[in-house]
Amino acid sequence: MLYTHPVLPLSWHPLLDDSSFCIGKSNIHAFQWIQKEKWPFQHLSIYGPKDSGKTHLGMLWAKKHQAVWLPCAHPSFVDSKKNYVLDVDPHCFNEQDVFRFLEEVHALEACCLWLSAFPLHVHCSHSALRSRFITFLCTQIQEPDDALLSKVLKKAFRDVGLIAYPQILDFLIRRMDRSFSSIRDVVGKIHDYTLKHRANLSISVVKSALDW
Known about the structure:
The structure is a single chain. This protein is of the alpha/beta class. The chain folds into 2 domains: 27-140, P-loop containing nucleotide triphosphate hydrolases (Rossmann fold), CATH 3.40.50.300; 146-210, Helicase, Ruva Protein, domain 3, CATH 1.10.8. The protein has 8 helices and 5 strands. The chain has helices at residues 28-35, 54-65, 95-108, 127-134, 146-159, 166-173, 180-197, 203-210, and strands at 43-47, 68-70, 83-87, 111-116, 137-140. The chain has a 5-stranded parallel sheet with strand order 2-3-4-1-5, with helices on one face. It is elongated and about 60 Å long.
């Protein structure tokens, strides 16, 4: 008889330091901009798919430059602080508020890192704001190639306390969707299965966890 155990809904606590950021062709430019001491302009926009490491990059830059994370781009949040990080959804923000926020930031000569799923100007109807967005430094994180997918998979397993050997990583990469968002889903299911069944990570466990 197979005994299983209830699994508590524990949240992930990934490593978010410089050495734990997985670098590949799809994100190298974003990482390089984060590492610079100074940008030629006040604003840098990094956009890319969900779970592609944008928050990780924001944490690195915020720590390096004592930047403040803001809940939204509103002029009332601007004070004597010199740098800001904003994780935004351009579908949802108030364009007039964002424009006034940029005016305040410009006056203080502050630097801002903008994180989003797609370029900020794409769905912007405010012509003056759109013109501002187009002047930002802008870099895209694309979906990973196999090399980066392997690195991120390995890190995701390590973040939940599992060691994924090369054979397991190769097995997964040949079969899973090649996207950042699929990594969290795949590792989450496998992690839950190993906890529930008190099983060590193996290819047979992977097959069972994912119904392959």
